[in-house]
Design a protein that fits this description.
With 334 residues, the chain is an alpha/beta fold. The chain contains 11 helices and 7 strands. The protein has helices at 84-89, 91-100, 104-116, 166-171, 174-202, 212-219, 224-228, 233-243, 245-253, 262-274, 293-305; strands spanning 81-82, 121-128, 140-144, 149-150, 156-164, 308-312, 318-322. The strands form 2 sheets. Strands 1, 2, 3, 4 and 5 form a 5-stranded mixed beta sheet that branches. Strands 6-7 form a two-stranded antiparallel ribbon. A hairpin with a 5-residue loop joins strand 4 and strand 5 (156-164).
Length: 334
């Protein structure tokens, strides 16, 4: 690798403008940009660890390590993985994920890029959960598959397994299953950034060069979630509800019952998107924002179990519905 901005003067005069010089008194050159260097020395910018993000170089070919610039192409993404548990037992869901839904790797990458300017490459694999298998348990669990790594080109990659609760695959409306897939893909974004932040804080060549300002710039008012510990599920749900609820509804519209009136469709999608907030302090604030938490509780329960008839939940009274005729939800994907 050679840096040359004008023709060199081999006579030893001052006519050359090379950025790479032999030691003082050596044959030829005679400059002082790199005192103590020899002609055979390697450009320090070629000595960076190829498995870490690559730092740009300054005019003297010294790595500039006060910022991280990752190459990133938002429209490049891997095929979503579908595990054998889904393919063999729930082929309808497997087909939905691999053939009908937009590629969730690309969707999640695009959402993160638009909201935060984040650069990342997700590799999601969906399968049945071996932890959440019964009614009353979580609808899904998102778990990192391998340690985050940075390839020789400087691209950050993160492999994540999303395990779906088989009970709800059998009993929840198709719309609810789609909302779960979107929801868990967003969890992957926050888990990834925490893992990458830890690498940047604790490993060379950027040890000590990344501070909370990076997270502040990317995550705005939520940066404090990232600096002490991995964001809790509640904190991640607040990030989703504040940053991504509109996109959540936009994605779900395509797959909602086309016969549904617009108001019912968008209300149901919004309620399913906000449902996870019930475990956070923000849940208590929703009524003051004009959002009926009883409606969220009841209608999400209807979507979870495809209920028909009258249903009531604690302190919320009763609600009579037919999940197909009243809320225009679609039957489970079998």
């Amino acid at each position: 690798m050679t840096k040359e901005t004008s023709s060199p003067d081999y006579s030893g005069g001052g006519g050359d403008d090379w950025g790479w010089y032999p030691p003082e008194g050596g044959s030829g050159g005679g400059g002082t940009v790199c005192p103590g260097c020899s002609w055979g020395d390697t450009n320090p910018c070629e000595e960076q660890d190829p498995n870490q993000p690559q730092f740009p170089c300054d005019q003297d070919w010294q790595p500039v390590i006060n910022e991280v610039r990752e190459p990133y192409h938002v429209d490049e993404y891997d095929t979503v993985g579908v595990g054998n548990g889904l393919r063999n037992v729930y082929p309808c869901i497997a087909s939905l994920i691999s053939d009908s839904l937009a590629n969730m790797n690309g969707v999640a990458q695009s959402l993160a890029f638009n909201a935060y300017g984040d650069s990342l490459y997700l590799h999601l694999t969906f399968d049945t959960s071996t932890v959440y298998t019964q009614q009353g348990q979580g609808a899904a669990a998102t778990t990192p598959d391998t340690t985050i790594f940075i390839d020789p080109n400087g691209y950050t990659h993160f492999f994540v397994n999303i395990g779906l609760n088989g009970y709800y695959l059998r009993n929840a409306s198709r719309d609810y299953t789609i909302s779960t897939i979107i929801h868990e893909s967003l969890h992957a974004l926050f888990i990834l950034r925490w893992a990458q932040y830890q690498i940047w804080l604790n490993t060379n060549p950027h040890l000590g060069t990344i501070d909370s300002n990076y997270i502040k710039n990317h995550y705005g008012i939520y940066w404090e979630y990232m600096t002490g510990q991995q964001p809790t599920a509640s904190q991640q749900h607040i990030l989703m509800a504040n940053q991504f609820i509109d996109q959540f509804v936009d994605i779900g519209r395509v797959f909602y019952n086309p016969s549904a009136p617009t108001a019912i469709r968008d209300t149901m999608l919004t309620l399913m998107g906000r449902g996870a907030l019930r475990e956070s302090s923000m849940w208590e604030l929703l009524p003051s924002m004009g959002i009926d938490t009883c409606k969220i509780n009841i209608r999400e329960k209807i979507a979870l179990d495809c209920l028909i008839g009258s249903y009531n939940t604690s302190s919320c009274g009763s609600f009579t519905t037919h999940y197909i005729d009243s809320l225009f939800l679609t039957p489970p994907c079998h």
